[in-house]
């Protein structure tokens, strides 16, 4: 199994990791890039995305792919921005079409075309993307969302929100299209990867006793994940996950993030006055507790 170089970038505001991964050929993929977003002023920035660009240029990398593990609900994607800056192709799981259809209805986006055409490549389980002297293998890992996929690049697996660090457990499944039984099956697929596989997380929300953790291992997850370690059966996991999800508040950036991310990381087109607007569906998300 080829070892690839993986450089993580952590955004403390959203608890999110983005990555640049490359092999000896110096061809690279960017995974889960994000835009900076100020909620009070509704201002979008590219500082975090520009750090990925600077790293790629400093390392003389040629970025071939921008890979989304799913349409995130907790940060805005920089996929569209990096597509334009780097000339790389933007890819996501084919389940994005179902995600788009659901949120098109929620947000009343009559003119939005929900066919995945906002992305350069829609990916199916088992697809292989070229990357220098190695390749990117696609593993469908739904449950958190319809479009969730894991990317296998050499000895590295980018697992999106499927799992967090062992003390953080697993992804929520209460978004439209989420399914805790599917998530359990997806986690078992990840646990079945070669034991030397390095697992890279999309998020970490560390307790005060440790710093943010980008990388974990199959052994650490199977031995100590607080939600789904070895010995936890599907029924118990599903009951735990569904019960826990019923208590969770919506992510802070859910409404702006989803509207941007179903568009491939792009803002809505500006109105006639030159201003782009995001919509807020009133009394539609979550339940006041």
Structure description:
The protein has 289 residues and is of the alpha/beta class. It has a single domain (5-251), classed as Ribonuclease Z/Hydroxyacylglutathione hydrolase-like (Metallo-beta-lactamase, Chain A), CATH 3.60.15. The protein contains seven helices and 15 strands. It has helices at residues 47-58, 79-86, 96-107, 180-191, 218-224, 234-245, 254-261; strands at residues 5-11, 16-22, 27-31, 34-38, 43-45, 62-67, 76-77, 89-93, 121-123, 128-131, 134-140, 149-153, 156-158, 198-200, 215-217. The strands form three sheets. It has a six-stranded mixed sheet, with helices on one face. Strands 10-11-12-13-14-15 form a six-stranded mixed sheet. A hairpin with an 8-residue loop joins strand 11 and strand 12 (149-153). Helix 4 (180-191) packs across helix 6. The mean pLDDT is 96.
Write the layout of secondary structure elements.
Layout lengths: L4 E7 L4 E7 L4 E5 L2 E5 L4 E3 L1 H12 L3 E6 L8 E2 L1 H8 L2 E5 L2 H12 L13 E3 L4 E4 L2 E7 L8 E5 L2 E3 L21 H12 L6 E3 L14 E3 H7 L9 H12 L8 H8 L28
Parallel strand pairs: 3-6, 6-8, 8-9, 13-14
Antiparallel strand pairs: 1-2, 2-3, 4-5, 4-7, 10-11, 11-12, 12-13, 14-15
Helix pairs in contact: 4-6
Order the strands across the largest sheet as they lie in space. Answer: 1-2-3-6-8-9
Mean pLDDT: 96
Broad CATH class: Alpha Beta
C-alpha Rg, in Å?
A: 18 Å
The largest pleated sheet is described as:
6 strands, mixed
Just name the CATH architecture: 4-Layer Sandwich
CATH topology: Metallo-beta-lactamase, Chain A
Q: Indicate the low-confidence ranges by residue numbers.
A: none
Using the alpha-carbon principal axes, give the shape.
globular
**Helical region count?**
7
Q: Estimate percent helicity.
A: 10-25%
Beta-strand percent range:
15-25%
Distance between the termini: 49 Å
Q: What's the total count of β strands?
A: 15
């Amino acid at each position: 199994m080829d070892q690839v170089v993986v450089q993580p970038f952590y955004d403390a505001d959203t608890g999110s990791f983005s990555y640049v991964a490359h092999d000896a050929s110096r061809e690279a993929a960017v995974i889960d890039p994000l835009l900076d977003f100020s909620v009070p002023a509704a201002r979008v920035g590219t500082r975090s995305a520009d750090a990925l660009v600077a790293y790629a240029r400093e390392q003389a990398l040629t970025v071939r792919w921008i890979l989304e593990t799913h349409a995130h609900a907790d940060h805005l994607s920089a996929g569209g921005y990096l597509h334009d800056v780097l000339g790389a192709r933007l890819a996501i799981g084919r389940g994005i079409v179902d995600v788009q259809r659901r949120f098109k209805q929620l947000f009343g986006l009559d003119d939005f075309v929900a066919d995945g055409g906002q992305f350069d490549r829609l990916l199916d389980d088992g697809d292989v993307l070229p990357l220098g002297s190695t390749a990117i293998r696609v593993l469908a890992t739904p449950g958190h969302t319809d479009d969730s996929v894991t990317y296998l690049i050499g000895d590295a697996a980018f697992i999106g929100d499927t799992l967090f660090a062992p003390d953080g457990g697993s992804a929520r499944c209460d978004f439209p299209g989420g399914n805790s039984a599917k998530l359990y099956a997806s986690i078992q697929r990840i646990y079945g990867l070669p034991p030397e596989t390095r697992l890279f997380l999309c998020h970490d929300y560390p307790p005060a006793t440790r710093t943010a953790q980008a990388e974990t291992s199959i052994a650490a997850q199977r031995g100590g994940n607080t939600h789904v370690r070895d010995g936890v059966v599907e029924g118990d996991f599903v009951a735990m996950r569904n019960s826990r999800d019923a208590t969770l508040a919506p992510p802070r950036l859910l409404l702006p993030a989803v509207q941007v991310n179903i568009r491939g990381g792009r803002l809505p087109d500006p109105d006639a006055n030159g201003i782009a607007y995001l919509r807020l569906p009133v009394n539609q998300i979550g339940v006041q507790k």
